[in-house]
Amino acid sequence: MSLLQVKNVTHGYGSSNLFWQAKRATVLDDVSLTIEHGQCLGLLGTSGAGKSTLGKVILGLEKPQKGQILFQGIDLYDTNASTRRHLRRDLQVVFQDCYSSVNPRMTAEQIIGEPLQNFESLSPNEQKRTIGELLETVGLSPEDMRKYPHQFSGGQLQRINIARAIALKPKMLILDEAVSSLDMVTQANILTLLKDLKTIFGLSYLFITHDIKAAYTISDALAVMEKGELVVQCEDKTQFLQLPHPSVQRLLQSILSEHPRSRSL
Asked: Would you indicate the residue range of the signal peptide (predicted)?
Protein backbone atom coordinates (compact mmCIF):
# COMPACT_ATOMS: atom_id res chain seq x y z
CA MET A 1 0.00 0.00 0.00
CA SER A 2 1.33 3.43 -0.98
CA LEU A 3 1.92 5.92 1.82
CA LEU A 4 0.12 8.76 0.01
CA GLN A 5 -2.33 8.66 -2.88
CA VAL A 6 -3.79 11.80 -4.40
CA LYS A 7 -6.71 10.74 -6.59
CA ASN A 8 -8.30 13.05 -9.17
CA VAL A 9 -8.20 16.12 -6.95
CA THR A 10 -9.88 19.26 -8.26
CA HIS A 11 -10.02 22.47 -6.26
CA GLY A 12 -10.71 26.14 -6.85
CA TYR A 13 -11.36 29.47 -5.25
CA GLY A 14 -14.21 31.93 -5.64
CA SER A 15 -16.33 34.37 -3.71
CA SER A 16 -20.04 34.77 -3.24
CA ASN A 17 -22.64 36.54 -1.13
CA LEU A 18 -26.39 36.52 -0.63
CA PHE A 19 -27.09 37.93 -4.09
CA TRP A 20 -24.51 36.43 -6.42
CA GLN A 21 -22.19 33.49 -6.91
CA ALA A 22 -18.84 34.16 -8.57
CA LYS A 23 -17.29 31.64 -10.90
CA ARG A 24 -14.64 29.61 -9.08
CA ALA A 25 -11.11 29.80 -10.46
CA THR A 26 -9.73 26.27 -10.84
CA VAL A 27 -6.40 25.93 -9.06
CA LEU A 28 -6.09 22.13 -9.17
CA ASP A 29 -7.48 20.22 -12.12
CA ASP A 30 -7.83 16.43 -11.77
CA VAL A 31 -4.44 15.95 -10.07
CA SER A 32 -3.31 12.40 -9.23
CA LEU A 33 0.03 11.28 -7.78
CA THR A 34 1.49 8.64 -5.47
CA ILE A 35 4.31 8.68 -2.93
CA GLU A 36 5.72 5.41 -1.61
CA HIS A 37 7.25 4.73 1.80
CA GLY A 38 10.74 6.26 1.98
CA GLN A 39 10.37 8.13 -1.32
CA CYS A 40 10.92 11.81 -2.04
CA LEU A 41 8.80 13.28 -4.82
CA GLY A 42 9.99 16.64 -6.11
CA LEU A 43 7.02 18.72 -7.27
CA LEU A 44 8.18 21.45 -9.63
CA GLY A 45 6.40 24.38 -11.19
CA THR A 46 6.38 28.13 -11.51
CA SER A 47 4.57 30.48 -9.13
CA GLY A 48 0.80 30.01 -9.43
CA ALA A 49 1.02 26.47 -10.77
CA GLY A 50 -0.97 25.10 -7.81
CA LYS A 51 1.86 23.38 -5.92
CA SER A 52 1.28 24.99 -2.53
CA THR A 53 -2.49 24.58 -2.80
CA LEU A 54 -1.96 20.87 -3.39
CA GLY A 55 0.25 20.77 -0.30
CA LYS A 56 -2.52 22.38 1.79
CA VAL A 57 -5.07 19.90 0.47
CA ILE A 58 -2.79 16.98 1.35
CA LEU A 59 -2.24 18.40 4.84
CA GLY A 60 -5.98 18.54 5.43
CA LEU A 61 -6.04 22.35 5.53
CA GLU A 62 -8.32 22.79 2.50
CA LYS A 63 -10.97 20.28 1.50
CA PRO A 64 -10.92 19.68 -2.26
CA GLN A 65 -14.06 20.08 -4.32
CA LYS A 66 -13.49 16.66 -5.88
CA GLY A 67 -11.15 13.74 -5.41
CA GLN A 68 -9.54 11.89 -2.52
CA ILE A 69 -6.45 12.18 -0.34
CA LEU A 70 -5.53 8.72 0.94
CA PHE A 71 -2.83 8.69 3.62
CA GLN A 72 -1.86 5.21 4.81
CA GLY A 73 -4.93 3.98 2.95
CA ILE A 74 -7.40 6.26 4.78
CA ASP A 75 -9.28 9.14 3.18
CA LEU A 76 -8.35 12.24 5.20
CA TYR A 77 -11.63 13.94 4.35
CA ASP A 78 -13.88 10.93 4.94
CA THR A 79 -12.97 9.76 8.41
CA ASN A 80 -13.70 10.73 12.01
CA ALA A 81 -11.82 13.38 13.99
CA SER A 82 -9.99 10.85 16.15
CA THR A 83 -8.57 8.99 13.13
CA ARG A 84 -7.69 12.28 11.42
CA ARG A 85 -5.78 13.40 14.51
CA HIS A 86 -3.89 10.10 14.60
CA LEU A 87 -2.96 10.44 10.93
CA ARG A 88 -2.03 14.10 11.37
CA ARG A 89 0.89 13.28 13.67
CA ASP A 90 2.41 11.18 10.88
CA LEU A 91 2.11 14.03 8.35
CA GLN A 92 4.08 17.18 9.17
CA VAL A 93 5.11 20.30 7.26
CA VAL A 94 8.00 22.76 6.87
CA PHE A 95 7.06 26.05 5.19
CA GLN A 96 9.16 28.51 3.20
CA ASP A 97 9.18 31.45 5.61
CA CYS A 98 10.98 30.18 8.69
CA TYR A 99 10.24 33.38 10.64
CA SER A 100 6.46 33.51 10.14
CA SER A 101 6.28 29.78 10.91
CA VAL A 102 7.17 30.35 14.56
CA ASN A 103 5.94 32.50 17.42
CA PRO A 104 8.64 35.17 17.97
CA ARG A 105 7.87 35.21 21.70
CA MET A 106 8.58 31.51 22.15
CA THR A 107 12.00 29.96 22.77
CA ALA A 108 13.33 27.16 20.59
CA GLU A 109 12.44 24.78 23.41
CA GLN A 110 8.82 25.91 23.36
CA ILE A 111 8.63 25.82 19.55
CA ILE A 112 9.95 22.28 19.25
CA GLY A 113 7.99 21.19 22.32
CA GLU A 114 4.58 22.15 20.89
CA PRO A 115 3.88 18.86 19.05
CA LEU A 116 5.29 16.87 21.97
CA GLN A 117 2.85 18.55 24.34
CA ASN A 118 -0.04 17.97 21.93
CA PHE A 119 0.59 14.29 21.24
CA GLU A 120 2.91 12.87 23.92
CA SER A 121 2.79 12.56 27.70
CA LEU A 122 6.36 13.30 28.70
CA SER A 123 7.66 14.51 32.02
CA PRO A 124 9.40 17.94 31.96
CA ASN A 125 12.81 16.27 32.15
CA GLU A 126 11.96 13.78 29.39
CA GLN A 127 10.69 16.56 27.15
CA LYS A 128 13.78 18.71 27.73
CA ARG A 129 16.04 15.74 26.94
CA THR A 130 14.07 14.94 23.78
CA ILE A 131 14.28 18.55 22.59
CA GLY A 132 18.02 18.60 23.22
CA GLU A 133 18.42 15.43 21.15
CA LEU A 134 16.32 16.91 18.34
CA LEU A 135 18.48 20.05 18.29
CA GLU A 136 21.61 17.90 17.99
CA THR A 137 19.96 15.86 15.23
CA VAL A 138 19.45 18.98 13.10
CA GLY A 139 22.98 20.28 13.72
CA LEU A 140 22.36 22.68 16.60
CA SER A 141 23.24 22.57 20.29
CA PRO A 142 21.01 21.72 23.27
CA GLU A 143 22.03 25.12 24.70
CA ASP A 144 20.17 26.74 21.78
CA MET A 145 16.82 25.78 23.29
CA ARG A 146 16.88 28.92 25.45
CA LYS A 147 17.21 31.27 22.44
CA TYR A 148 14.42 33.16 20.68
CA PRO A 149 13.82 33.20 16.89
CA HIS A 150 15.54 36.59 16.37
CA GLN A 151 18.73 35.12 17.81
CA PHE A 152 19.02 32.58 14.98
CA SER A 153 20.03 33.00 11.36
CA GLY A 154 17.52 31.99 8.69
CA GLY A 155 19.23 28.64 8.17
CA GLN A 156 19.36 27.93 11.90
CA LEU A 157 15.71 28.82 12.36
CA GLN A 158 14.74 26.53 9.51
CA ARG A 159 16.59 23.77 11.35
CA ILE A 160 14.37 24.58 14.37
CA ASN A 161 11.31 24.18 12.13
CA ILE A 162 12.65 20.86 10.85
CA ALA A 163 13.30 19.68 14.42
CA ARG A 164 9.70 20.53 15.30
CA ALA A 165 8.46 18.65 12.21
CA ILE A 166 10.36 15.45 13.07
CA ALA A 167 9.66 15.60 16.83
CA LEU A 168 6.84 13.04 16.56
CA LYS A 169 8.79 10.78 14.21
CA PRO A 170 6.28 11.23 11.37
CA LYS A 171 6.17 9.10 8.26
CA MET A 172 6.02 12.02 5.83
CA LEU A 173 7.02 15.68 5.54
CA ILE A 174 5.55 18.26 3.19
CA LEU A 175 8.41 20.66 2.37
CA ASP A 176 6.82 23.73 0.80
CA GLU A 177 9.65 25.81 -0.72
CA ALA A 178 11.55 24.95 2.47
CA VAL A 179 14.96 26.09 1.15
CA SER A 180 14.08 28.70 -1.46
CA SER A 181 14.49 31.72 0.84
CA LEU A 182 17.99 30.67 1.96
CA ASP A 183 21.35 31.56 0.43
CA MET A 184 23.06 28.92 -1.71
CA VAL A 185 25.49 27.66 0.95
CA THR A 186 22.79 27.39 3.63
CA GLN A 187 20.44 25.81 1.10
CA ALA A 188 23.01 23.12 0.31
CA ASN A 189 23.50 22.41 4.02
CA ILE A 190 19.75 22.11 4.66
CA LEU A 191 19.35 19.78 1.66
CA THR A 192 22.14 17.59 3.04
CA LEU A 193 20.41 17.55 6.43
CA LEU A 194 17.10 16.57 4.84
CA LYS A 195 18.75 13.74 2.90
CA ASP A 196 20.36 12.46 6.10
CA LEU A 197 17.08 12.63 8.05
CA LYS A 198 15.29 10.79 5.27
CA THR A 199 17.75 7.92 5.65
CA ILE A 200 17.87 7.93 9.46
CA PHE A 201 14.10 8.04 10.04
CA GLY A 202 12.86 6.41 6.83
CA LEU A 203 10.94 9.56 5.94
CA SER A 204 8.96 10.27 2.80
CA TYR A 205 8.95 13.79 1.37
CA LEU A 206 6.80 15.87 -0.92
CA PHE A 207 9.39 18.49 -1.88
CA ILE A 208 7.53 21.46 -3.38
CA THR A 209 9.82 23.89 -5.20
CA HIS A 210 10.43 25.97 -8.32
CA ASP A 211 14.17 25.14 -8.15
CA ILE A 212 15.00 22.21 -10.38
CA LYS A 213 18.54 21.91 -9.01
CA ALA A 214 17.30 21.60 -5.41
CA ALA A 215 14.62 19.12 -6.45
CA TYR A 216 17.08 17.01 -8.41
CA THR A 217 19.49 16.96 -5.44
CA ILE A 218 17.05 15.48 -2.94
CA SER A 219 14.32 13.73 -4.93
CA ASP A 220 13.90 10.15 -6.13
CA ALA A 221 11.07 11.00 -8.54
CA LEU A 222 10.03 14.29 -10.15
CA ALA A 223 6.77 15.82 -11.32
CA VAL A 224 5.82 19.15 -12.91
CA MET A 225 2.67 21.19 -12.46
CA GLU A 226 1.39 23.86 -14.83
CA LYS A 227 -1.81 25.88 -14.40
CA GLY A 228 -3.21 23.42 -11.88
CA GLU A 229 -2.48 20.31 -13.91
CA LEU A 230 0.16 17.65 -13.36
CA VAL A 231 1.77 17.66 -16.80
CA VAL A 232 4.87 15.51 -16.17
CA GLN A 233 5.58 12.56 -13.86
CA CYS A 234 8.92 10.77 -13.90
CA GLU A 235 9.62 7.94 -11.45
CA ASP A 236 13.35 7.91 -12.26
CA LYS A 237 14.93 11.34 -11.89
CA THR A 238 17.92 10.31 -14.00
CA GLN A 239 15.59 10.20 -17.00
CA PHE A 240 13.91 13.52 -16.19
CA LEU A 241 16.55 15.74 -17.77
CA GLN A 242 16.17 13.95 -21.11
CA LEU A 243 12.40 14.39 -21.32
CA PRO A 244 11.39 16.44 -24.38
CA HIS A 245 8.29 17.90 -22.70
CA PRO A 246 8.22 21.73 -23.06
CA SER A 247 7.70 22.19 -19.30
CA VAL A 248 10.86 20.26 -18.52
CA GLN A 249 12.83 22.17 -21.14
CA ARG A 250 11.66 25.51 -19.73
CA LEU A 251 12.77 24.49 -16.25
CA LEU A 252 16.18 23.47 -17.58
CA GLN A 253 16.55 26.75 -19.45
CA SER A 254 15.79 28.67 -16.26
CA ILE A 255 18.90 27.32 -14.51
CA LEU A 256 21.49 30.07 -14.10
CA SER A 257 25.16 29.34 -14.59
CA GLU A 258 27.20 29.21 -11.38
CA HIS A 259 29.29 32.21 -12.47
CA PRO A 260 27.59 35.45 -13.58
CA ARG A 261 29.98 35.82 -16.54
CA SER A 262 28.58 32.62 -18.04
CA ARG A 263 24.96 33.77 -17.86
CA SER A 264 23.27 34.88 -21.06
CA LEU A 265 21.03 37.95 -21.13
From this structure: none
